[in-house]
Amino acid sequence: QVQLVESGGGLVQAGDSLRLSCTASGRTFSRNTMAWFRQAPGKKREFVATINWSGSKTAYADSVNERFTISRNNAENTVILQMTSVKPEDTAVYYCAATLGSWLNTGLDQYDYWGQGTQVTVSS
To answer: Does residue 70 carry a pLDDT above 90?
Structure first.
């Protein structure tokens, strides 16, 4: 059974940093693209960041560009989202996702596996 498990969420203040981790089990995603999405209360789930299989290519939503960094460790089957200078509008449930493809993709419907999410709350 394939599982993606996120961790690292919590309550932080505006301007703080936070590190989210996602660990996959049940299969390796070392040749697949992975991503982070988020969903704020009352809003649709939206793309945050994606990384290709080798980590050589990344893409970010405009709203998080230059504040968030996505990285991966294929040996440990993990993907990381380093969040800096967080804002109250970053408050959301953050989801890790994996696709069976190897190209960068920002569309929700292109991802085949999803984690259960981790809550990030940023206070002002």
So the answer is: yes
Model pLDDT for residues 19-58, shown as the tens digit of each residue? 999 999 999 898 999 999 999 999 999 999 999 999 999 9
Cβ count within 10 A of residue 114: 15
Instruction: Record the tokens describing residue 43, joined without a space.
Output: 């809003």
The CB density around residue 103, as the number of other CB atoms within 10 Å, is 12
Q: Which residues pair with 119 in a beta bridge?
A: 93
Distance in Å from the first CA to the final CA of the chain: 40
Written as one letter, the residue type at 57 is: K
- Cβ neighbours of residue 80 closer than 8 Å, sequence gap 6 or more: 19, 20, 21, 22, 70, 71, 72, 73
Distance CA 33, CA 83 (A): 20
